[in-house]
Amino acid sequence: xxxxxxxxNSIRTRLPAILDWLDEKQPDILAIQETKAQDKDFxxxxxxxxxxHVEFCGExxxxxxxxxxxxxxxxxxxxxGDDNGESxxxxxxxRFGKINLINTYVPQGRAVDHEMFGFKLEWxxxxxxxxxxxxxxxxxxxxxxxxxxxxxIDVHNSKRIWGHVCHCxxxxxxxxxxxxxGFNDIFRKFLPEPDTYTYWDYRVKDAVNxxxxxxIDHILATSGITDAATGCNVDIEPxxxxxxxxxxxxxxxxxL
Length: 256
Hints:
six-stranded mixed sheet, alpha+beta, 7 helices
């Protein structure tokens, strides 16, 4: 079973690249973040015509999550369930048999002195509560753009970057609190070497080749799924295309 994640930074802009990648890599599940499309504008028919099932929840020009899969999920829900729907465009929960997929686009935070940073920490705490309430004792795989680089190896220059909203002690602690639900880092299990990133800022010239990146896109899993993991990869090629997302595809294989 192949499970992948990709921050598209606009599903409509990146649709050709997504269709090419789906055709080439044939994942069983592809979790998408930052679709930036209202549901009425989501290109579901094109994906369906290409043979893929898709579930989605989005808003105009901001946020948005989707789950593209070979087979329809047994269950799909959006949001943390503790608000009036505001979190629906940041989290999808899909169940495929005994596997629960949590696809999240965690708030970025803007600046450590901005109210959105407090919202980010709160959002991660709310996610932990959601997991405890709904998924205790079940097998879960958590993927997405989590907007956290928890280790020095996850950024190109930790000493200089330290204190950023995605690489500081407060957000790392909040992230680890969620991980204590029972998650293991599938990405680093198979990709322990430095300079292995998933995001490269558009504003940095030739960032991919210069290895000026971040690892903020994650694949994490509970013990049963972790034991079944056979590999994990970052596909850099789509980031090198014209008009790419600033992120690229990350995928893991499991003998499930």
